[in-house]
Amino acid sequence: MADIIHLLPDSVANQIAAGEVIQRPASVVKELVENAIDAGAENIHVLITDAGRTNIQIIDDGKGMSEMDARLSFERHATSKISNAADLFALRTMGFRGEALASIAAVAQVELKTRQEHSELGTRIEISGSTVESQEAVSCPKGTNFSVKNLFFNIPVRRKFLKANSTELSNILTEFERIVLVHPEVAFTLHSNDAELFNLPVSSLKQRIIAVFGKKQNQQLLSVDVETTLAKISGFVGKPETARKRGAHQYFFVNGRYMRHPYFYKAVTDAYEQLIPVGEQVSFFLYFNVDPANIDVNIHPTKTEIKFENEQAIWQILSAAVKEALGRFNAVPSIDFDTDDMPDIPIIGADKPIEPPKVHVNSDYNPFKTSGNSYSRSKVDWEDLYAGLERNDTNEVCKPDDDEDNLIIPSATDEVDSKPATSLYGNSSGLEKSNQHFQYKGRYILTSVKSGLMLIDQHRAHIRVLFEQYISQIRQKQGVSQGVLFPEIFQLPSSEAAVLQSIMDDLSAIGFEVTNLGGGSYAINGIPSGIDGLNPVDLVRNMVHTAMEKGNDVKEEIQNMLALTMARSASIVYGQVLSDEEMRCLVDNLFATPAPNHTPDGHTILATIKEEDIERLFR
């Protein structure tokens, strides 16, 4: 039988490796910037064109490479970081496997210019799809200049599945933030399509965090610092009052490397137990310094999952350190008497008698007399005073257009057929009229139908009604905006600002008027009509974070996501007492929607207890 196993060509092997290491443009930025840091660069410049599709350029002033090293650097498993297996357990550098440049060169057109400090001339190499096209000596500055053009040009399927430019740029900025947060001793700049997004000079760690995420962080962070024989943990955690449901900045670093670690995350969240509401998160920036022999960074291609030898002990150290930081913050302030502004406390001499205060009483006053004093009772016609005054709730559940007698609840079994409103209301044959509704524990609306008793979740029902309203406004661009007296100013990190720009048109269609003030600052000058009482800044942030999590590129999906976020925020809450008129309107509008059975994200809105099941309970 003929042999069937053979070695793959290097170009094919490199493309396979690229599938693990180079997943998107952000992966290229991560690998090249980490190489620049390993080269001892003090200044690193990142230039992005079309979110990395067209060009990614990384310029550093590190030690550079010789002509031979420049050529060898594109070979698989060619590295200066390790020479034997034992070196894997003493790593202090970011990269070490020697796969990054080979993988990048396999799926892009790469130009490298590099020069060492003592050399008069540098080296220029052009590679396209793992094929070296040219190599020559050139005059260039000290350091390295990588230009990666037309990523995935030879793998059309991979290029086709790249996300929208806003999503890919957000991913690049996220990777960039993870690197700059752990290297405040290095100056960074980042430009996207010639627009400067970051200009970070050398600074302290806290100043770097503030430069990346905004000045508010200066008042929101508590210092953490503990050193033991197992690990040194330093950094910052957020104050409990800064907790929010989404969008918290949460970072773990070990030996200068970003990592994900659910076990250590639990240690931080447990420290905040009873201090923040359930489901909310706080920001933290925690830096671990441990012996490289006690961790393994080689268990994942992107090196973000790291195994610790003493995880349980470090968990306890971390938990205690965070609790100590919170304890210092929550300490009750004491009065400081060693100041010049001491309170003036009168001194009573021992020779002076103490007299109780005297109370003067008018013994002639009689409140029941109707004349002769200023306190006489006046007769008030209370019915006339309140004539014409009707009940008016500030939170309008719905705005009914139909007369109360026109309400017809459809007959239901377990679910209601999803039919247009005309078919539900146009023919009352076989349907039961019900004008009475009951509210159960501020959560469910009970109403009688022909087949039994229907229970409707009032919060979910309102979500469905509002969703249909908002999605219609977005698609028809008919959102009604109302101006605000004082514009709401807020700031976003660059990664979130890129996503906000991509959904700006849809926000405008809903009714938001958001103005870019520059420098990551934005002003809300107008809000959609009907969201009174909601925080517009939190609402915009939630929509940005949802867009970042979903990563949707289809316009319709983004519009649905925005409408659903708005509906959730503006809908009535559990526990809100509704009048019979409000319940009637809500039920009426619910059954006028195309799909009254479920919310847009699939949660059940209504259920029916059949008449025979009710009768069975009383047998």
Walk me through the structure.
The chain has 619 residues and is α+β, with helices and mostly antiparallel strands. It contains 18 helices and 22 strands. The strands form five sheets. Strands 5-4-3-6-2-1-7-8 form an eight-stranded mixed β-sheet. The chain has a five-stranded mixed β-sheet with strand order 9-10-13-11-12, with helices on one face. A hairpin with a 2-residue loop joins strand 20 (513-518) and strand 21. Helix 8 (262-271) packs parallel to helix 9 and helix 12 (458-476) packs across helix 14. Mean pLDDT is 79; it is low at 331-340, 374-378, 391-395 and 400-431.
Helix content: 25-40%
Question: What does the radius of gyration come to?
Answer: 34 Å
What is the distance, rounded to the nearest whole angstrom, between the alpha carbons of the first and last residues? 79 Å
Shape: globular
| Most strands sheet | 8 strands, mixed
Low-pLDDT stretches: 331-340, 374-378, 391-395, 400-431
- Specify the number of helices: 18
Strand content: 15-25%
Extended strand count? 22
Content-based structural category: alpha+beta
What is the overall pLDDT average?
79
What brief labels describe this structure?
alpha+beta; eight-stranded mixed β-sheet; 619 residues; globular; five-stranded mixed β-sheet
Topology:
Elements: H1 10-21, H2 25-38, E1 43-49, E2 55-60, H3 67-72, H4 100-106, E3 109-115, E4 122-128, E5 131-138, E6 143-149, H5 156-160, H6 165-180, E7 187-192, E8 195-200, H7 205-213, E9 221-227, E10 231-238, E11 250-254, E12 257-259, H8 262-271, E13 284-290, E14 295-296, E15 307-308, H9 311-330, H10 382-385, H11 421-425, E16 437-440, E17 444-449, E18 452-457, H12 458-476, E19 481-491, H13 494-502, H14 504-510, E20 513-518, E21 521-528, H15 536-550, H16 555-570, H17 580-590, E22 606-610, H18 611-616
Parallel strand pairs: 1-7, 11-13
Antiparallel strand pairs: 1-2, 2-6, 3-4, 3-6, 4-5, 7-8, 9-10, 10-13, 11-12, 14-15, 16-17, 17-18, 18-22, 19-21, 20-21
